[in-house]
Amino acid sequence: MIKKLNRGVLLIIAALVLAACGGTTDDDEQEKNQAPTEETSEQSSDMDDMEHSDSGEIPDDLEAASNPTYEVGSQARITTDHMKGMEGAEATIVGAYDTRAYIISYTPSTGGEKVENHKWVVQEEIENSGDSEIPAGEEVTVQADHMEGMEGVTATIDSSEETTVYMIDYESTTDGKAVKNHKWVTEEELTTNK
């Protein structure tokens, strides 16, 4: 009798553990089925699991913006979601640079899933990029280390725009963690509106 009872309890516990590990919630299913938009791209979820570099180093040939909308030391509200906890956070501008910014897709050198539509790397972070715009679809070698497994990889250019990019500090809205020297956000991804 006791053996049967113990066996029954073990079976129930095993079933509960398996259900917890393998089950999905309605939210999980809804998230999987939601088509990515420009604002809610796959990039945010791809980058959430990756280690962000807080290095303030920039390429030697990256020129400071002559007349940025957001001055170094000023505050702005982030309107993009490159990473979890970013959108809506208050940013402090650490640097402002005039350049061409690229959206790229690549597979991290550390392994794992392909990162789609990563925003942003700048012209000066692409090997042998010169001054001309690199067309969409072109394969390039990335010299940036914003994220773990990014430096040295071959990436595909998805699109680009000529803009002012900003390096920012902010506090995550989800866990309160301080993020230092995030590279990059563009002018259109910041606002002075509260």
Please tag this protein with its features.
single chain, 194 residues, alpha+beta, SH3 type barrels, seven-stranded antiparallel beta sheet
H/E element sequence: HHHEEEEEEE
Q: What CATH architecture label applies?
A: Roll
Number of DSSP-assigned strands: 7
Stretches with pLDDT under 50, minimum 5 residues? 1-6, 13-50
End-to-end span in angstroms?
A: 67 Å
Q: Taking all residues together, what is the mean pLDDT?
A: 81
Shape, please?
globular
Name the beta content range.
25-35%
Sheet of most strands: 7 strands, antiparallel
Tell me about this structure:
The chain is 19% helix and 31% strand. The protein has 194 residues and is of the alpha+beta class. The longest helix has 21 residues, at 2-22. The chain has one domain: Roll (SH3 type barrels). The protein has helices at residues 2-22, 26-33, 42-48; strands at 75-78, 90-106, 115-122, 139-141, 154-171, 178-186, 190-191.
Overview in brief:
With 194 residues, the chain is an alpha+beta fold. The protein has three helices and seven strands. It has one domain: Domain of unknown function DUF1541 (SH3 type barrels, Roll), CATH 2.30.30.
